[in-house]
Amino acid sequence: MEKAKCECGHVNPYGTVICESCGKPFFEEEKALLNMRYEGVARRSQTYNKTMIDKVWNFFSSVKVGIWLIVVTLLASSIGTIFPQEMYIPPTANPTFFYEAEYGAIGKIYYLLGFHDLYNSWWYMLLIAALGVSLIICSLDRVVPLHRALKTQRVTRHESFLQRQRVHGVSNVDDSDETIEQAQQILKEKKYNLFEENGNIVAEKGRFSRWGPYVNHIGLIIFLIGCMLRFFPGMYVDENIWVREGETVVISGTDGEFFLRNDQFIVDFYDDTDERFQDALVRAGSPIVRKYQTSATLFQRIDDGVVGREPELVEVARHDIRVNDPFKFEGYALYQYAFKQNEISEMSFELEENETGERFGRIDVSTYDPETIYDLGNGYKVEVIEYFPDFYFDDDRTPASQSRIPNNPAFIFKIFTPEIEEGEISFVGIQTNQDINGENTHRLRFVDIEMNHVTNLVVRKDYTLGILMVGGVIFMVGLVQGMYWTHRRIWLQKVNDEIWVSAHTNKNWYGLKKDIEAVVSKTELTMPIDSVEEEEKKS
Amino acid sequence: MDQLSQLSSNLLLIAFFLYLAATIFFAVSVTGKKFKNKAGEEKNIAGLLGYSSSIIALLFALGYFVTRWIVAGHAPVSNLFEYTTFLGIMMSLAFVILYPIYKTNVLGLFTMPIVMLIIAYASMFPREVSPLIPALQSIWLKIHVITTALGQGILAIGFAGGLIYLLRVIDFKKNDKQVKAIEFVMYSMISIVGYILISSIFSGLNYEAPFAYVDEKGMEAEVVYHLPPLVGPNEAVPLTDEQMTPFFNVHPNIKSADLNTVIWSLFTGLVLYYLVRLITKRKIGELLQPLLKGVSPQAADEISYRAIAIGFPIFTLGGLIFAMIWAQIAWTRFWAWDPKEVWALITFLFYAAYLHLRLSRGWHGEKSAWLCVIGFAIIMFNLIFVNLVIAGLHSYA
Ligand code: HEM
C-alpha cells in the first residue's frame, strides 16, 4: 500500500486525509471547512477492505453501527419493563400461566417471545457482547493513529489548513514579532502550552482530554468483562440461609468452614405516636418497619471437618446484621434479607383422661427435633410415632409433610397408660385432635405453644466486585476527562506581512473564542471569524 | 418541631414566588427593548435582577431542604413530593451555575417556568414526612438520589436550550411535522398546568367520590376519587348518591383513579391550549417565537450541548454508579433489572447515543435539539410513569 508523501516531506500512512505533520489537506476539492475529526488520520477501517477480518473490523469500527447497537439495546431494555420480569412475579406463580392470566393475550405473547426473562436471554447477551466488541475495535481503530498524529504535528501549518479552520482570521500588525510575543504571554497566563517554530506558534491546551473517550471505553470494557466473569464458577457465591433464634447453622457456600448463630432477631416498627410521621403512618394504614436486625455470632470450624463428627467451633466475630449493614468476613458478606416471625418452636400437651379430666403430666415437644419417647412416670408414657412438620394431605389422601419447616406441625402419638399397655393412637395437630380408633380413654390436651423468630440471610461472595469497581472508576475518569476539559489549539502564523490566526477545539467553541478575545483585546490582532456564526448571520 | 415544619413549607412557598419574580424579570429583559431605548441600560438590569432573584430563590429552596431534613431526620428525597421538588431545585441550581457562562436571559425565561412547573407539580403529591423503611436508611441512598437529581437538573437545562433552539428556528407558517411536534411539546407542558389547575379547584371544593370495587386480586376494595369520575374502577359501585357515574369501568390492573386524573389533565390542557389559540389566533410556538428574535440559534445549540456534556457524567455517577453501590449494600445485588434501574440505564444509553451522534455523525442544530427534548421526556417518564404505574423496588408509592 503506497504511503502519501506530503510536500513538507512527511511520509503519511496510506489513507491519510490531512498531513500529520504540516496539516496540508490532501483533497483540495472545495474551500469547505476541514473535517478535523481524528485529525484526518488514516484509520485501518477506512483503508483496508479485502479479507473477512477487514470486513468484520470495519463493521464494528463504524460509529454508525455502534450507535445502532446502543439504540437497539435501549429499545430492547425498555420492552423488558412493560410487564414484570419473571423474578418479580409472585414466587408461587407459574410463569406459563401467570402472564396470560394477568395480562391477557398480550401477556401470553410476551411470555412466548421470552420477554419475561429478557435480560438473561441469549440475544440480549449477544447484544451486550456486540457492544463490547464494537467498543474495543472502534477505539483501537482510532486511538492509535490519533495518538501518532497529535505527536507528530508541527507548529507551522500549511496555509490551506489554517484557512479551512472554523475560526480563522487575518490581521495586519505593525510589528508581528512583538504581537506574537504579547499573544504568547497572554496565552501562557491562560495555561496554554506554547510551541514555537520559525517565529510561528501554536498554543495548545487540554490535549489529554482527547483520550477521555478511549479511557472511558476501556473502563466500560473492564466493567463488561467483570459482568461476564460472574458466569465462571468460584467467582460468585449466592446462597440463602434460614437461622432460628438460638440456633447455629453452617453457612452455605463456605464449604462447611463457617457457622452462624442467631442470638436474637428483632423487628422494630415506627412509633405511631411519633408526630413527624403521623400523617404518613395513617395513610399507610399498617405499621411501617423501622429496623430488621439479626444479632449474630460467627464461628469457624477448627477440626478437620470429618462428616458426622460434631464440629469444633471457635467464635470469630459478632455483628448486628441489618438491612444496609451486612456482616462481612473473609470475602463473604451476610445480608439481612427476609424473616419469618412466630414460627412454632415447641408445643406443650397434658395427658388427660377423657372421662374424669384427671391429668397425668405435661410434655414439651420441640417442633425442630421431637424426642421419640416422653416418659411421664408411673407407667404413663407418650411415644411420637410420626411427625409432620408441615402437614398436609397428599394426593392419596394420606398425611404427609410439605417441608421440614414447622409451618403446620402435626404428630401421631401413641399413649401408654398403666391400664393400656399396647397404647392408644391419636393424631394431634393445630386445632385437631383425632382419636384414630374412636375408643381412646386418654388424650393429649394442647396447653401451650412457644414461638420463635427465624431470620433469612443471603450469603454472598463476589470476586467480580473489585473488577467492576475498577471499571467504573476508569469509566468515570475518562468521562470527566473527555467532557470537562477540551482540547484547544490556537495557531499564530506569519504569512507574508500578516498574522494568521486559526483555532480549533473539539468542543465548547464559546470558551475557545473567549480565550482568543482575551488575546485580541490586548494586542493589535483582530478577532478571527467564526465561519459557522458568520453563516448564521447571513441567513 | 411543628413550627420548623411550617417554616420549611413557607420557605418553599417563598422560593416559588421568587422563581416567578425571576421569570418576570427575565421576560422584561428579553422583551423590554422599549424600556431600554428610554432609559439606556435598563435592559441589563432586568437580566441581573432576574439572575439575583433566581439565586435568592435557590437559597430559600435550599432553606426548605435543610429545615425539612432536620424535621424528618433524614434527607428529604424519600417520597415523590420530596424528590420531584428537589429535581426542580436542582434544575435551578444548574441554571444558576450555567447562566454566568453564557449570560443569556432567554435561558432564564425558559428555565424558571419549568422549575416552577416541576415544583407545583410536586406539591400535588402527599406532602407529609414519611418514615424510611430499612432499605432506604443508607447514606448511599442520599448520595445516589442527590447526585442523580443534580445530573437530571443539568440535563433539563439541555432540554430548555433545545426548546429555545427549536422555537427560534422552526418556521410556523409551514405547519409541517416539526411544527406539530413542537406544539405537542407545548401542549404537554400546558397539560401539567391543567393538572395543577383542575386538582387545585376540586381539592378546594373538597370534592370526593368514593367507590366500592373489585381489585386485581378479586377482593372487595374501596377507592376515593378527588376528581369527578370519568372512568371508574372495576365493577364500580358509587358510595354516595350525588356523585357522577363513570362513563365506563376499566380493567382491575389499571389504577383507575390515576387514569381518571390523567384524562382530566389532558382534557383541561386541551381546553387551555385551544383557549389560548382562540384568543390569540396563533400557535403557542408562534407566540413565543418573537421573544427569541435576538437569540443566536448556534449559541442555543451550544448551551444545550454544554449542559448535556456537564450533566451526563454527573447523572451517570449518581444514577448508575452510586445506585449500584447502594443496591449492592441494601438489596445484596448491584443490579436487579428493576424497572426504575432499567429506565436509568435507558436514559444513560440515550444520552450516550446523543453524544456519539453529535460527535461522529454531525447531528447539530435541529436534530440535536429534538434529542434533548426526547431525553427530557425519558427523564420525566422515569419520574412519573415508572414511579406511579410500574411499581418496583424504588416505588415510593
Ligand atoms: C454504552 C456504550 C458507550 C458509551 C457510554 C460511550 C461513551 C462515550 C463518550 C462519553 C464519548 C465522548 C463523547 C464526547 O466527547 O462528546 C465517546 C466517544 C466516542 N465513542 Fe463511545 N461510548 C459507548 C459505545 C461506543 C461504541 C459501541 C462505539 C463504536 C462504534 C463508540 C465509539 C466512540 C467514538 C468513535 C468516539 C469518539 C472518540 C473521539 O472523538 O476521539 N462508543 N463515547
TrEMBL record, chain A:
Q: Which UniProt keywords apply?
A: Cytochrome c-type biogenesis, Membrane, Transmembrane, Transmembrane helix
Membrane topology according to the record: Multi-pass membrane protein
Annotated Pfam families: ResB (PF05140)
Keyword Transmembrane tagged: yes
Localization, UniProt: Membrane
- Gene Ontology cellular component annotations, sorted alphabetically: membrane
Mainly resides where? membrane
Q: Does the keyword Transmembrane apply?
A: yes
Q: Mind telling me which InterPro entries this protein's record contains?
A: Cyt_c_bgen_Ccs1/CcsB/ResB, ResB-like_domain
Q: What region holds the ResB-like domain? A: 63-420, 442-517
Q: What's an example GO BP annotation here? A: cytochrome complex assembly
Domain of life, per lineage:
Bacteria
**Annotated TM spans:** 65-83, 122-144, 214-232, 463-485
| Protein name as catalogued | Cytochrome C biogenesis protein
Taxon lineage: Bacteria, Bacillati, Bacillota, Bacilli, Bacillales
Automatic annotation (TrEMBL), chain B:
GO cellular component terms attached to this protein's record: plasma membrane
User: Which key words are in the record?
Assistant: Cytochrome c-type biogenesis, Membrane, Transmembrane, Transmembrane helix
Q: Which Pfam families match?
A: Cytochrom_C_asm (PF01578)
Q: Does the keyword Transmembrane helix apply?
A: yes
Q: Is RNA-binding tagged as a keyword?
A: no
Out of the domains of life, which is the source?
Bacteria
Alphabetically, the GO molecular function entries are: heme binding
What are the GO BP annotations of this UniProt entry?
cytochrome complex assembly
Q: Which InterPro entries match?
A: Cyt_c_assembly, Cyt_c_biogenesis_CcsA, Cyt_c_biogenesis_CcsA/CcmC
What residues does the Cytochrome c assembly protein domain cover? 78-206, 271-394
Q: Where in the cell is it found?
A: Membrane
Q: Which residues cross the membrane?
A: 12-32, 44-65, 80-99, 106-125, 145-167, 179-202, 262-280, 307-329, 341-357, 369-393
First-listed, main subcellular location of the protein, grouped into a coarse class:
membrane
- Specify the protein's topology with respect to the membrane: Multi-pass membrane protein
Do you know which PANTHER family this protein is assigned to?
CYTOCHROME B_B6 PROTEIN-RELATED, HEME EXPORTER PROTEIN C
Q: What protein am I looking at?
A: C-type cytochrome biogenesis protein CcsB
Q: What is the lineage of its organism?
A: Bacteria, Bacillati, Bacillota, Bacilli, Bacillales
